């Protein structure tokens, strides 16, 4: 992977805008539970309900965003979704005192925030076709840096005002919307710009969504694998977190695990590159290797009910995350042609369902038996994801997309 200085200015500007947006998003989301419990004086069950509604809105947003891409167009969809998200966040402080309205607003914010995701991923795949594999990985790293910075700042902002976090998130979303407004106008009026012409053609294409959904070999088993991974990964918040508290460890130790996650994503890219070269030289192999790493991490937690075991588990699952996060959008961008936005939204929506199901399943298991049954569930879901990714690899055997050198020929159009 090249260094950032070797990329064109256009890509650097795009990555900077993505980083700023990620920082803004991270200012708010860690504080939602605290805001509901502390500021609004509601119960933790009420806080869980807000997170659930927000998550369901996010699933709907990804599905809707993928379906609307060809009907609305890339420019209107990305700019409109980001602008609506900004408006919702800026209005949230004024509307948060009415409980029902607050819940509805959180659902809408989850919807608007996710609405632009498949469109932005598809934009990267279409606009930077020759470098999309590398760029998906770089955007993933940039977003994680933004999350680390934003999360660190959120605690300081909360001491000043919860509302300030919401407003700053809204401002960064609005700035990201303005960035795309000028950015897409510039590349769309470039006269002889072939990439811009192709982008417009792809954005205006239309096909029956039901017909696209019947091509299950392209997305279904990969999406189910992602859903299972997300379900199992709920072990951190719904298993490891209460385990640390119950055993008298410092709450900061849970934060250290996620600090480790963020550091590894930034500094351990050479290790990930080595894994790809030695054991996962195709995107499909990356998916399977990712699931094996997740399963290994959960097995360690199951075998070692201790903080060192959790550290090792976090290291293994972080490498799994580093493989899967850029692989899914890269595979769909390479193999679904102009319909990539729909499949990105559909796969993202199915995958996100695991984040909704996981906390409730694991919460009940932890109440009944502690960390052991939770870890067993995580191991089983990861093992099942290995199976679904292997099935995905077999039924897409003719698609030999390299993790370092993307194909130019779409399999499905």
Automatic annotation (TrEMBL):
Database matches in SUPFAM superfamilies: MFS general substrate transporter (SSF103473)
Lineage top rank: taxon = Bacteria
> GO CC annotations?
plasma membrane
Keywords on this record?
Answer: Cell membrane, Membrane, Transmembrane, Transmembrane helix, Transport
Q: Where is the Major facilitator superfamily (MFS) profile domain?
A: 10-400
Report TM segments.
Answer: 12-37, 49-70, 77-95, 101-126, 138-158, 164-184, 218-236, 256-275, 287-304, 310-331, 343-362, 374-395
Q: Which GO terms describe its molecular function?
A: transmembrane transporter activity
Topologically, how does it sit relative to the membrane?
Answer: Multi-pass membrane protein
Where is the protein situated, by its record's location annotation? Cell membrane
Question: What would be one Pfam family of this protein?
Answer: MFS_1
| Protein name, entry field | Predicted arabinose efflux permease, MFS family
Native organism is Paenibacillus catalpae
Q: What is the lineage of its organism?
A: Bacteria, Bacillati, Bacillota, Bacilli, Bacillales
